[in-house]
Specification:
It is built from 4 helices and 6 strands; from the N terminus they run H-H-E-H-E-E-E-E-E-H.
Length: about 160
């Protein structure tokens, strides 16, 4: 059950965090929905392992509706599950990518990177990006593939 580890609250850099460990998927979904009804929260993150019966279209639709109604962002992280029917507005598949080249030593590992694929979203075209965390600016940046200068050219403008 702990194959993917646990959230490390200080690593999130949030001043406050409420962590709920649920006994099963049904309890986790209930806790998420209750959290989404509290507009004082900035986001609700839930992690569910595998393909539990409780995680059906109705459950995901309830989460999406609650998130929209109360203005709280909802992130449902599914570990070890299969893509199936969901009421989520956006569906992402995120996996690790090779680290970015180290600026001082090309043989040393550099900054972590992830392959982020938006494979289903209402009103958005599917796409795939490599992203990395910029610790100095505390943001995610797009990473150009080796030899791909389109991001740099786009910054300079045309002409």
């Amino acid at each position: 059950m702990l194959e993917a580890g646990r959230i490390y609250p200080p690593g999130l850099g949030l001043p406050e965090l409420i962590h709920v460990a649920a006994r099963d998927a049904r309890a986790a979904l209930w806790a998420m929905e209750e959290g989404l009804r509290c507009s004082a929260l900035g986001a609700v993150i839930g992690e569910i392992w595998g393909d539990p019966k409780a995680l059906d279209f109705t459950a995901t639709r309830r989460l999406a509706v609650a998130a929209e109604r109360y203005g709280v962002a909802a992130f449902l992280i599914r570990l070890g599950g299969h893509a199936n029917l969901s009421g989520a507005r956006m569906r992402w598949r995120v996996t690790s990518a090779p680290s970015i080249a180290h600026p001082l030593d090309p043989k040393a590992p550099g900054a972590a990177a992830w392959d982020a694929e938006l494979f289903r979203a209402r009103g958005f075209a599917p796409g795939r990006w490599v992203v990395r965390h910029d610790g100095a600016a505390d943001r995610l940046d797009l990473v150009a593939a080796t030899g791909d200068r389109t991001l740099v050219e786009g910054e300079r403008g045309v002409g």
